[in-house]
Specification:
With about 450 residues, the protein is α/β, with parallel strands linked by helices. Helices cover about 45% and strands about 15% of the residues. The strands form 2 sheets. Strands 3-4-5-6-2-1-7 form a 7-stranded mixed β-sheet. α7 packs antiparallel against α9 and α9 runs antiparallel to α14. Bound molecules: guanosine-5'-diphosphate. The site of guanosine-5'-diphosphate has 15 residues, from α11.
Length: about 450
């Protein structure tokens, strides 16, 4: 990995690991399947100092002299045949000596191969342990580890693009760009403290300007959070309007026009009816709400209350009305991003988009109102986890700037500058505490 190599020197070895890896020995040789069950071929990865030795006991012929990254064809101890691909320490996914073994994908064959590896001295990898080791060995930073997880979980083109960008170091580079002016100011402050006679007073104007540069970088990163959330968690569109306007019919027409996402994200079940679809590569959540109208009926009142809630939570609100009825006037309507005149097969309206949920006319044009290219261009968008430390770094920089502006001694600024660096380090993992690491790696599956 290009950017992994860039940061190969920064090792996290010797630091306490997350609890899910707590007590596990990172010098063990570990093994786990790295392919999902059900395929014709399955791959199993060994990683750790004894990988080649373990492989030599389960696979034959194993050569006297191993040529790294050169595939070997042979037979496994359990009788199946397949390939072994050895990697040398320092030039593998984890940074450790490692071997990828591929065999036929039947559950029996994979189980027998894993069993043979365990007997030869390997232990089963914890979920996420391969990536955790890559992080601990300085192959990747924490944002890249998160991106590995996101690449494997990507459902849409936009999610994949975003994950690829972050895995290649996009976010890491942005954090580094904010970091370097802070490091420079800190050096200035410390030099003036330690060698005041030689260096003299800190150039307060320059120090404040450098802090301002860093703060600006961080502010720009924080601004990407919403865009990142739209790509990662989906863009929500609520269909609202009076009963019988054709909201449910439109909901179904939209679903037929777009690619339905089979595997919904966890934790999205709500009381309103909703479906995930991919529109132009973006994960979209369409929410069909109950009608909006004044009613004395208790159950219906609850439905209206939920519709209003769905509107408040949505990224876009589409107000659907029946074009055979008179246009009520925008001032009478709730705030909406798009007004949809439905049933245009019966009557056309001068207001909003004419659509027929029945014939499908105008539905494709409606879908063009969903934003495009959220994952591309501009800064690599941050994820929810990055927001709090970035905000804290920004606040620390503001305090340092105040010190430079105040005319008071500049020594106290170094505390704030160090705090800013520490918070940036929480994003990249350099200064991440075990509980931050645990939270990140808890979402990983076996074999990642
Ligand atoms: P909702 O209460 O807003 O969800 O409305 P429905 O989707 O249940 O539709 C109400 C009625 O309008 C049903 O009888 C639908 O068949 C009819 N309908 C919906 N869309 C159209 C349309 O585009 N053209 C025509 N002619 N009828 C429609």
């Amino acid at each position: 990995m290009r950017s992994g190599e860039m940061h190969a020197a920064r090792s996290h070895k010797g630091r306490a690991g997350p609890r899910h890896n707590g007590g596990v020995d990172l010098t063990d040789t570990i093994v786990a399947p790295i392919t999902a069950p059900g395929g014709a071929v399955a791959a199993v990865r060994l990683s750790g100092p004894r990988s080649w030795s373990v492989a030599s006991q389960v696979f034959a012929p194993w050569p006297e002299t191993v040529v790294a990254r050169s595939a070997l064809f042979g037979r496994f101890r359990h009788g199946d045949d397949g390939l072994a691909l050895p990697f040398a320490e320092g030039a593998s996914y984890t940074g450790e000596q490692s071997v990828e073994l591929s065999t036929h994908g039947s559950p029996a064959s994979v189980r027998a191969l894993l069993e043979a590896c365990l007997q030869a001295g390997a232990r089963t990898a914890e979920p996420g342990e391969f990536t955790y080791r890559a992080f601990m060995n300085g192959r990747i930073d924490l944002t890249q580890a998160e991106a590995v997880r996101d690449t494997v979980a990507a459902l849409t083109e936009a999610q994949l693009k975003l994950a690829n960008r972050q895995r290649e170091g996009g976010l890491l580079e942005q954090v580094e760009a904010a970091r370097s002016p802070i490091v420079r100011v800190l050096a200035m402050v410390e030099a003036s403290t330690d060698f005041s006679e030689e260096v003299g007073e800190v150039d307060r104007g320059l120090a404040a300007a450098l802090c301002g540069d860093a703060e600006e970088q961080i502010r720009a990163m924080l601004e990407t959070q919403k865009r990142g959330r739209h790509v990662r968690e989906g863009f929500t569109i609520a269909l609202v309007g009076p009963p019988n306007a054709g909201k449910s019919s439109l909901f179904n027409a939209v679903l037929r026009r777009s690619r339905a996402i089979v595997s919904p994200h966890a934790g999205t079940t709500r009381d309103t009816l909703e479906e995930l679809v991919e529109i132009d590569g973006l994960l979209c959540r369409f929410v069909d709400t109950a009608g909006l109208r004044e009613t004395a009926d208790e159950v219906e009142t609850e439905g209206v209350r939920r519709s209003i809630q769905a509107m408040e939570e949505a990224d876009q609100v589409w107000y659907v009305w029946d074009a055979t009825l008179p246009w009520p006037g925008e001032e009478q309507l709730p705030r909406a991003d798009l007004y949809v005149a439905n049933k245009c097969d019966l009557a056309r309206s001068d207001f909003g988009e004419n659509v027929s949920a029945l014939t499908g006319e105008g539905v494709d044009a409606l879908l063009t109102h969903v934003p495009k290219g959220l994952g591309a261009g501009g800064l690599a968008p941050i994820a929810a986890r990055h927001a709090a430390p970035l905000q804290q770094a920004r606040e620390a920089l503001a305090r340092a700037q105040e010190t430079f502006a105040s005319g008071l001694p500049t020594d106290p600024a170094s505390v704030d500058l160090r705090a800013a660096l520490r918070h940036l380090g929480e994003v990249t993992g350099e200064t991440a505490t075990p509980d931050i690491l645990e939270r990140v790696f808890a979402d990983f599956c076996i074999g990642k």
